Amino acid sequence: MNRLVGRLRAGRNRKKVVGLTALFLLALGAVAIAAPSGLLTPGSGSSGGLSTVGPVNPNNGFPDWYRDSNGIDLQPCDDPQDKYCGGAVAAPDNTAPITFPDNFPDEFFYMSADADSLTSAGGNKVLASFALEGAFANPGIHAGDQIVFSRIRYRINAGLAKNTDYKVTQPYGTDTVTSDDTGALFVTQDVGVSPGDFAQATKGRVGPFLTWAKTADPNDLPPANYVGDGVTPHTVTGSPVNTNFVRIQGTGIGGGPTDTNPNPCNTTGANAYTGPVNDCIQTNNFVLVGKRPTIAGVDVTRATYEKTASGTEIAVTANSKAGQDIVVRDGDNGGGPGRLFRTTPLRADGTGRYMAYVSVPGALPKTVDVVNRADTPATVKHVDLTDALTATASYGVTNGSGGGDKLHVTASSSDSSVAQSSLTLPGYGDKALDATGQADISTPAPPDTVTVKSPKGGSVTVPVTLSGQTLDPLPLIASAGVDQTVSAGAKVTLDGTGSAGDIDSLSWSGPAGITVSGATTTSPTFTAPATAGTLTFTLTVKSGTDTKTDTVDVKVNPVTPPTAVIGAVPAAVLQNLPITLDGSASVGAKFQWSQDPTDATKVSLGTDTTSSKLTFLYPKTTTPVHIILRVRSAADTGGACDTPTPTCDVAKVTLTPLLDNLGTIRAKNDGKGRWVVDGSSSTSESNNVRVYAGPTIDPTKLIGSALVDPTLAWKTDVRNSTVAVPTCRCVSVESDRGGRQLAVPMQ
């Protein structure tokens, strides 16, 4: 047996299942969960393998069975005392009979198929599980929380390549699983976790059910009424795509190049694998849990009565399997003495539908029992008798706002003693119908259905029919946008996005000589001419034979000659510090900063050279830097602009470097590793001085550094220095602000 599966089952509880399923996508999409994590992306395979949900059991609230597309029915395997189910479930007291809710398992299986003895690289066990599982949406055993879901789960705790895709081929199709960044994965896909909606599970990929495959040994069969024994690994059949195995393909899944793959993939026969032997592992055996039903159950779809002056009748309809023995009896008094009507068999149609129409000679019971006597023990559904309502709902439409339109409802009860005025509309604040069984509700838009309720328990929901006048279609509207004012030469965008209706075509037209680009779009463009004036553009929209137009005026102002102005700069600029040049006093539409190409020292101006201000790092230099600002009008088409033109102006500024004079420098070494060097500077602003041994600036011979103080003095005193006195008995000094003296003699 797959012992890993046994341990997982024994250790998990409802809280863990709920915690995980809260993270799962219910659709067939990618599913990611946590620690160990990974990704599951379904490939092939689809829903449809489960065809029918059986009746809900009156004792525990779960379906009595599910039927697959091969006609196999399986019931809950929920009894720990059943040796063929007990390994899969656990009740509070496994030695006592199953009762709901006091001694009922928090999870069980209609079918569970776990791949057996599948081992991946490094001897890591592989969990590959396929199940139709019953459980509860919240912790604890509570009526109304019952859920049934389809589950596909994979887990490998270690040994995989990190963040790597692996292809899984399994009985219900293929999946791609992706390992996490630790080389592990734990991924799950659950479908159907809404309480009470038991049909959701049929939308999952698990189905049809698997069963033990026949072998050459005629005695090698599952126990009677089971698809497997829950313990013995066995080959299976039932895969809708004839892949009755689990195969995982991917880099090194079976071990390294020199390892022996413990479970290599089949390389002959159907679905033969071709590829590196250690890139594929496979098992054909599963540990299978599943029990065929001992009961068919019964679902009551209707239990109503009709009371008139001539008599009283009861109508019952129900669903179950074909060939059942189903009766209806007095639910208040049973079928013995005191019964108010005689027990009556339901008539069958041979496909699983049943009906009874029963005369009641006197008083009417409040309830009936619908009993499937073919079940052992018999299944009994105890249901309330209600009256049957008939109703209509119509809505008359008038063209316009609908302020006077009304929803008209009529209804009546099968109980002639029920006053029509006691029937109510719960969707409208329990509004009562009038004495004739009618009601009118003013509303500009009706619902698609209306529900009517009776004080005798009856309820009916009917569709709302519409009739009358049709509404006007959306009007055709041409909207050319708001008027604009632009400068000569500017690029102008027109705006027709406010147009509405079923527009078949759209076009713009303008004055002669103006070229409109994109004239059949909602946002065309054109270039404003150099001549001032007002231009009128017309937007035309068409829908069928309907045409609408709108105009927009664009006022073109005369060109204002651009002016380039650079704000004041210092007489001398500190080196190796940022400086900002301000051209915001300029007039124009476009800015372009650049450096005079003849400068000896080149400057990096950064990435933003088209704004009104320019910030850059002034370099260490002994020669001036010249920065040029060109300001252009919107109509300017580019060009050198070395001298002013009607559409371009140019300004130039000279940035003279502030030369840091380091003054007299004194340098001493006591021969015991102590250096003392001092001097002065012409600026103290963020200025740091560095001293090097030797006649050049050599970073490998840095003695030390010092900050220039407010008195413009600096001094470095370094003890235990490893920098030796150079042969030249000299030092070299540089400052952050561009000062430099080389080969200064030592004292």
What does the model show?
2% of the residues lie in helices and 39% in strands. With 747 residues, it is an all-beta fold. Strands 6, 7, 8, 9, 12, 13, 14 and 17 form an eight-stranded antiparallel sheet that branches. It has a six-stranded antiparallel sheet with strand order 1-2-11-10-15-16, with no helix packed on it. Strand 50 and strand 51 (740-745) form a beta hairpin. It is flat. The N and C termini lie far apart (91 Å).
Key descriptive features of the protein:
six-stranded antiparallel β-sheet, disordered N terminus, mainly beta, 39% strand, eight-stranded antiparallel β-sheet, 747 residues
Q: Layout of helices and strands, plus pairs?
A:
Blueprint: H1 3-11, H2 14-21, E1 31-33, E2 38-42, E3 50-53, E4 66-68, E5 73-74, E6 107-115, E7 119-120, E8 124-136, E9 146-156, E10 165-170, E11 173-178, E12 185-191, E13 211-212, E14 234-237, E15 246-249, E16 280-283, E17 285-290, E18 299-308, E19 311-319, E20 326-330, E21 344-345, E22 347-348, E23 353-360, E24 367-372, E25 379-384, E26 386-387, E27 389-397, E28 406-413, E29 424-425, E30 431-432, E31 438-442, E32 449-453, E33 459-468, E34 484-487, E35 491-493, E36 505-509, E37 525-527, E38 533-543, E39 546-557, E40 577-582, E41 590-595, E42 613-618, E43 625-632, E44 648-655, E45 666-669, E46 675-680, E47 688-693, E48 702-707, E49 713-718, E50 730-735, E51 740-745
Parallel strand pairs: 18-26, 27-33, 34-39
Antiparallel strand pairs: 1-2, 2-11, 3-4, 4-5, 6-8, 6-17, 7-8, 8-9, 9-12, 10-11, 10-15, 13-14, 14-17, 15-16, 18-19, 19-23, 20-21, 20-24, 22-23, 24-25, 27-28, 28-31, 29-30, 32-33, 35-37, 36-38, 38-39, 40-42, 41-43, 43-44, 45-46, 46-49, 47-48, 47-50, 50-51
